[in-house]
Structures are given as C-alpha cells and as structure tokens.
Specification:
Radius of gyration: 18 Å
Distance between the termini: 26 Å
Order of helices and strands: HHHEEHH
Number of helices: 5
CATH topology: Fumarate Reductase Cytochrome B subunit
CATH architecture: Up-down Bundle
Shape: elongated
Bound molecules: protoporphyrin IX containing FE
Oligomer: single chain
Largest sheet: 2 strands, antiparallel
Helix content: 55-70%
Mean pLDDT: 94
Number of domains: 1
Strand order of the largest sheet: 1-2
CATH superfamily: Transmembrane di-heme cytochromes, Chain C
CATH class: Mainly Alpha
Low-confidence stretches: none
Length: about 180
C-alpha cells in the first residue's frame, strides 16, 4: 500500500469522522430498536433510521476503503512502539471490515422476506434471494459483529485518548488537524 506521507489529508479526516459519527449513531439506534418496548412509538423510528443510516454508513465505509487503497495510509507516528503500530493497523483494518460487514448483513436480514429497504423516501429493492441458512448467518454476523465492533471502537477511541492525554503525541491531532498534527 502506498505511503500517504506524514498525516491524514482532508478527505481522509472528513470520511473518518463521518464514519465514526454514523457508527456511534447506529449503535444507539440499534440498541434502542431492540430494547424499547414493542409499543413504544420511538421503536419504529429507531429501526427506520437504523436502516437508512446503515446504507449511508456502507457508502462511507466503501469510500474509506477506496481512499485507503488509492492514497495509502500515513507513516506511523515515530514515537510508537512496534507492537502499537501493529495493533493500530490491525484495529483499523478490522474496524473497516466490520463497518462493511454490519450494513451488508443488516441488508440481508431486512430483505430476507423479499421486502425493500426504505431510504429517505426511496426504496432499495431486495437484490437477491436470501435462504434460511444465509439469513441465520447474517443475523449472527450482525449481532456478534455489532458487539465485537463496539468493543473495538471503545479500545480504538481509548487508545487515541491515551496517546493524546498520557503519551502526548500527535496520533489524535493528526486525525483532527491533518499533516504534522501540532
Ligand atoms: C470517538 C471515536 C473515535 C476516535 C477518537 C478515533 C480516532 C482515530 C485516530 C486518532 C486515528 C488515526 C490513528 C493513527 O494515526 O494511526 C483513527 C484512524 C482510523 N479510525 Fe478512528 N476514531 C474513532 C472512531 C472510529 C470508528 C467508529 C471507526 C469505525 C469504522 C473508526 C475507524 C478508523 C479507521 C479505519 C482508521 C484508519 C484511518 C483511515 O482508514 O482513514 N474510528 N481513528
């Protein structure tokens, strides 16, 4: 993969924070849709917004992947230890994997009965037939993948804050202000 230089460019930063906001909103909406009482009037809204924003998150995650493939990732901050560089790189790849897997599995679950996915007044049709086996696999991926990603997001954000407040390096600031980060 190409080396993107000393910091994140503006496109990488906009995509990163858009994806972060979407994923956090999707967690909240997903948990609300499952936990709220069946008759609660917000339950339907939570599910509708979870599905619609899930489609948007898929598009943004795809854009993050394409940008990474085309523009590469910046060299790691020089003061990081080898294991930290390895762990961060693995976490970023896994986060991206889950950001693509969760909307795809959600789409399979939503369209398994042949129904379309509502999308801000439009409808995304069911593109392929979903067998019982595929629907069950998609439900498991969505459920366990969701909690795995939640744990990963907490570790990822926790590491970013530790770098900022304890190690006082430019890991977080270069994702906010760009190259150099200071
Ligand atoms: C409050 C939450 C978050 C914070 C504080 C945060 C912070 C950061 C920071 C500082 C970096 C740059 C690391 C480096 O320079 O090596 C980064 C990269 C990255 N983060 Fe986050 N992040 C958050 C949430 C998320 C979420 C929810 C995702 C979900 C997909 C995510 C996915 C990624 C990816 C894929 C990268 C690699 C950069 C890229 O591909 O453009 N982050 N994050």
């Amino acid at each position: 993969m190409a080396d993107g230089g000393g910091g994140y460019g503006v496109a990488a930063r906009i995509l990163h924070w858009s994806l972060a906001a979407l994923i956090l909103a999707l967690f909240a909406l997903g948990i609300a849709a499952v936990e709220l009482d069946y008759y609660n009037r917000f339950r339907g809204d939570a599910l509708l917004w979870h599905r619609q924003l899930g489609v948007v998150a898929f598009a943004v995650a795809l854009a993050v992947l394409l940008r990474r493939l085309a523009g590469g990732v910046p060299s790691p901050v020089a003061s990081l230890r080898t294991w930290e560089v390895f762990a961060a790189s693995a976490a970023h790849r896994l986060l991206l994997f889950f950001a693509l897997l969760l909307p795809l599995s959600g789409y399979c679950i939503s369209t398994s009965s042949g129904a379309a996915v509502p999308f801000f007044g439009w409808e995304l049709p069911a593109l392929f037939a979903v067998s019982d086996a595929l629907r069950e696999a998609a439900e498991a991926a969505h459920f366990y993948g969701g909690y795995a990603m939640l744990a990963l997001v907490c570790a990822h954000a926790g590491a970013a804050f530790k770098h900022h407040f304890v190690d006082r390096n430019e890991v977080l600031t270069r994702m906010i202000r760009g190259a150099g980060g200071r």
